[in-house]
Amino acid sequence: MSEDVVTYTIENHIAWVKYNRPEKRNCMSPTVNRRMMEVLDELEYRDDVGVFVLTGEGTSWSAGMDLKEYFRENEEKGLWATRKAQREAYGWWRRLRWYHKPTIAMINGWCFGGAYGPLFACDLAFAAEEATFGLSEINWGILPGGGATKVAVELVNFRNAMYHALMGENIDGQKAAEWGLVNEAVPLVKLKERVTEVANVLLTKNPVALKATKDAIRRVSEMTYDNAEDYLIRAQEAANSHDNNGRKEGIKQFIDDKTYKPGLGAYKLKD
Ligand code: COA
Q1: Which of 92, 108, 232, 241: CA 20 to 30 A from 2?
Q2: Is 108 within 8 Å of 128 (Cβ atoms)?
Q3: pLDDT value for 144
Q4: Are residues 220 and 122 in the same domain?
Q5: Rg of the chain taking only CA atoms, in angstroms
Q6: What is the mean pLDDT of residues 19-45?
Q7: Which residues are bridge partners to 9 per DSSP?
């Protein structure tokens, strides 16, 4: 049974991973968090997975942490249980932030509080216009913990982050896109189609370059310009040594074969 709280299918190199507790609005219990870590393990290095998409079954993406099973029941057991539950939740979000494959959050409905952790952990995010986002913590008497405050400050400007966290008012997908919580919002009926389109573009890119790039975007945000310049040299040189000549092939197809222009698209990956 516990395995059912997260499901996945793999179609054309896209892993569609779903929170699957629709009757509990996909809130994150310790069981969900443990299973999600296993799923990350199962999918990360599979050759038939090029892009990882995280979405939710039913009307919710995720209603945040499970107030009963994550908070109340662990608090009753003692600090050790709370800390263990935090490690499990934060553990898979951290793992997702540095995942080997590009990741996309597909926000189909409710997205509250703790769900901002995995939202930020995904490299890209696309929401239904009808989706609802909220830092609801203030409404039940806590601060937005578990990284949610950090996510708001990373993605949203100061005034909006402060308003969002203090007021406990929800915003829809369009406002979330305007604020930068997600890349784009589209009508729910078009959401999977748009995410598939984006995933298919990612699948045409050099996978080593994708991993190096996604890590670089996250890492350099905390660096001085000089440190970033140096990091990027090292990161590119490390990527070259893993890349099976993809970069040379890219140069060849542009300079010698003249079959594409890097400014207008990607070189053709070898089959
Ligand atoms: N923790 C625990 N249980 C939750 C939950 C959460 N975060 N979110 C939803 N549930 C449970 C409800 O208790 C209810 O359980 P029940 O059927 O056993 O009574 C079930 O999921 C369905 O929720 P319900 O509130 O009836 O659904 P809704 O569609 O009317 O409303 C929400 C959806 C998301 C608006 C509402 O459930 C909600 O406010 N959830 C809490 C969101 C939140 O503050 N999360 C932040 C946590 S950090």
Answers
A1: 108
A2: yes
A3: 95
A4: no
A5: 20
A6: 98
A7: 16
Q: % helix / strand / coil in the chain, to the nearest 5?
A: 55, 15, 30
- Determine the length of the chain: 271
Task: Find the residues whose C-beta lies inside 6 A of ligand 1.
Answer: 24-25, 27, 63-68, 110, 112-114, 136-137
User: What is the per-residue pLDDT for 155?
Assistant: 97
Domain count, the chain: 2
Whether residues 86 and 178 fall in one domain? yes
Look at 251 and 93; give whichever has higher pLDDT.
93
Residues 218 and 244 in one domain: yes
pLDDT, tens digit, 9 for 90 and up, residues 182-222 = 999 999 999 999 999 999 999 999 999 999 999 999 999 99
Statement: residue 244 has pLDDT above 80: no
Domain limits for position 227: 207-264
What's the 204 CA to ligand 1 centre distance in angstroms?
39
Phi then psi for residue 103, to 5 deg, are -130, 145
Sheet with 171-172, side-by-side order of all strands? 60-62, 110-112, 132-134, 171-172
In single-letter form, the type of residue at position 92 comes to W
CATH code, 71: 3.90.226.10
The answer to whether position 269 is within a domain reads no
Block residue for tokens 């009753």:
76
Ligand 1 mutation pick, 5, 20, 21, 27, max ligand atoms within 8 A of CB? 27
Mean pLDDT estimate for the chain: 96
Give the atom of ligand 1 at the shortest distance from the alpha carbon of 66.
1
